[in-house]
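Aerotolerance regulator N-terminal domain-containing protein, Haloferax marisrubri. Tokens?
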Amino acid sequence: MVLDEFFLFPLGLVALLGAVPLVILYLLRPEPVRRTLPTFRFLADSAGRNASNPIFDRLLRSLLLLIQLLALVALVGSLATPYVLVPESETVQETVLVVDTSASMGVRDGGGTRFDSALAAARDEVSGTTSVVAAGANANVVLRRGSATDARAALDGLRASAAPGDLRSAITAAASIAGEDARVVVLSDFADDSPWSDAVREARARGLVVELQQFAGGGQGNVGIVDRRFSGANVTVTVKNYGDSAATRTLSLAGATREVRMDPGDVATATLPVPAGGGRAELSPGDAFPTDDALYVAAPEDASVDVLVLTNDENRYLTAALSVIPEVSLTVDNPPTAVSTNYDVIIYSNVNPGRLLSGNVEAGREVVADGGGVAIQAQEESPSYGDLQLVSQASIETNPTIGTVESHEITRDITFPPPTEYVAGDLRAGQSLVTTTGGTSLVAVERRGAGRVLYYGFMEDSSAFKYNYQYPVFWKRSVFYLAGRSTLSELNRATGGSLAAGANQTVETPGGEATGPEVRLADAGFYRVGDERFAASLLSEAESDVVAAPLDGESAPSDYPTRVEERDVPDPLTEWAALVALAATMLELAYLRRRGDL
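Tokens:
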């Protein structure tokens, strides 16, 4: 805007509208009524040479208006703050603060935590120009070259996370945003196992002053949970003793307890049943680092997946693969039979077309409508499954070649050998996951409302896949996919990673709500995406090793670097505009007195 080049607050010029009523007042003022006075006429005729000029008289009548307008314009100008640019020199001290927000900074030390002490020290290091970098799982530039007020506000917004840290990346990021002659202050416990010292040397090689302040109090004798594995409906928890003496801890989860004893540096394990809906496993007694004393476990409310296999010629490879899955409750039945809808998954395999009832197919549709799933295995003579059949049956072909295998949760990293015979046909609905070079789908899926449908095109008598060790893996994934369930390994994550959610999907986190499509797992606790609950816990041997060696040879520099900056700054002319307004007002008073109005 052009006015910005002359006024700091151009909006103040709106007050010029006050001149409008003033001008209107002068326009509406009535002209004087002329009266003929014989005496005055005689005097005027005798002094004709002194008669006034009409033009001059009109000007004198308008002079008061001009003076008043001048006063008004000067007053309004002072409100808009006119200015001129003048050169200015300023001595600048630039500081880049690197504050460690990793999990180990949550170690209790005295009346607070390491992070509390580091944050208080960081506030004292704020200078006129300050940048703030948070060293968590990723380097986060919170503030770039802000004022002292902005820097303190940015520091107030920081908090320690429950995730491992990457101090090296944070120091590298700080060096990249630091200006010439800046100093970098790193506030950390320096328990990070990343090669942060390399980043410090690189920054100093650039001529930057790098100051290290260590906060490593507390944490001696830490015992923490460093890993967990899921097997069936059980979780095996790994605990490590980082102390210098033997330690005994009790691990509890939903009423079940196990005692573990460890010598210095030892690792122990304990297996506990996972309760329906999950829970929080705890080590007791606790210590100065509470973050790794807890393990959050997420699990479905209904741990069992009820599967029905409808068959007239039982596929023992299939039923054996399903029966070894701990979460699966398997039922095998032979059509014609009455089928209830109290199943999560129905699989149709080797069904006699003449014995399959329409009610058996309708039961599959009802399971899909209720959010479950249906799987149909190909066979030479297939019954009529109606809209549940994803691939039409045209002919029986031999010796195909596997063309493409799409990346999907049920086919990922699985190698499918080509069958000797297969049912050739067209994909009627859904997505093909495994396709022959001829274009026939051997594995296809479709989401149908809240449910899912699977087509498995490998006929068991004509396929060697049933002998493959990945065969049970495929069926376990398929059953969980059809039932709409996630495995315990998928539901339970380590902090520092991320959780995928839909675009603009609201995710409930331990610290409040966040929005997808991806949410960082910075806090330990439970996360809810839609109807599904996930858990995140600190699982890091390096982060639980909270005792850090003291820094050697590090001291604060006696003189901090500064630089002089030349810049143009606005010099307000408000007082001059006010003086003009005052002078115009005095002139108006003098004119009114001379005219005899005062």
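Residues 47-51 have pLDDT under 50 and may be disordered.
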